[in-house]
Specification:
Largest sheet: 7 strands, mixed
CATH superfamily of the largest domain: Endonuclease Chain A
Shape: rod-shaped
CATH topology of the largest domain: Endonuclease, Chain A
Oligomer: single chain
Radius of gyration: 35 Å
Strand content: 15-25%
CATH class of the largest domain: Alpha Beta
CATH architecture of the largest domain: 2-Layer Sandwich
Helix content: 40-55%
Distance between the termini: 85 Å
Number of strands: 9
Order of helices and strands: HHHHEEHEHEHEEEEEH
Structural class: alpha+beta
């Protein structure tokens, strides 16, 4: 007999065995049920109590002995309807609870989080995120921009990126390391640039609530940090350096 449907509506293997045994035995004491169902004697009352709770079994006491009976199989449909009604009630309760869960998620999202990207594809991922995150006329900030370990690749990457920045009408604010002067394409059409005499070991990119620390090695390494307070801190640092940087 295929009992899969009984499993799917929530009955355990032991409950199914005992219920089927009761259907075949009729009103029965503990011993015959244990033998017919093939379960341990110590477990029988636990299982019958569950079946009674589900409305699928009952018992009577005769001469101080319990006799168990199976509820009609049609009772299984009633059990399903009760489960459906309970599920709808749970759904209504969940609807009330969802706003607090969503708020908890939003609060978590505001916490600092970091991801590490490697290689030029990683660079592409981070700078594409910048393009997708910002709206036209919004600004982003870079300081410590350098020619990198592979100047030609760096130049090629930023030339393509600057075209997309212009197309989206974003505003760039960039402080280059002095050693990048003449080596890296400027962004006159899309923002402002300055130069810093003292080079910085990493390029820092700030956009929205994100900060990227970019190491332009032959195989670039990028640490992308998401967090409002971190972005604000690096933006403040950028503002200080912008004052001392030169055109």
């Amino acid at each position: 007999m295929d009992t899969k449907i009984l499993e799917e509506i929530g009955l355990t293997d032991s409950e199914i065995k005992v219920y089927l045994a009761l259907l075949e035995l009729g009103s029965s004491k503990k011993g015959p049920i244990v033998k017919k169902a093939g379960i341990t004697s110590s477990k029988i009352y636990e299982v019958t109590d569950k079946l009674i709770e589900r409305g699928l079994a009952s018992y009577v006491v005769k001469d101080k002995v319990k006799y168990f009976n199976a509820a009609p199989p049609s009772r299984i449909k009633d059990y399903l309807k009760e489960k459906e009604a309970k599920l709808k009630d749970q759904e209504l309760e969940l609807d009330k609870f969802l706003p607090s869960l969503e708020l908890k998620q939003k609060l978590t999202e505001k916490k600092t989080d970091a991801e590490v990207y490697r290689g030029w594809k990683g660079m592409q991922t981070v700078y594409n995120d910048l393009l997708e995150s910002l709206k036209p006329q919004e600004e982003y900030y870079i300081f410590g921009a350098s020619r990198g370990a592979d100047t030609e690749k760096v130049k090629s990457f930023y030339t393509r990126f600057n075209v997309k920045v212009t197309q989206k009408k974003l505003k760039a604010n960039i402080i280059f390391n002095e050693n990048a002067r003449g080596n890296i394409p400027k962004v006159e059409k899309t923002g402002k640039t300055k130069y810093l005499d003292h080079t910085t070991p990493a390029e820092i990119l700030v956009y929205g609530n994100k900060t990227a620390i970019v190491l332009l090695e032959k195989e670039p390494l990028i640490i992308l940090i998401q967090g409002e307070s971190v972005a604000k801190s690096f933006k403040t640092y950028f503002d200080v350096m912008w004052v001392v940087a030169k055109k």
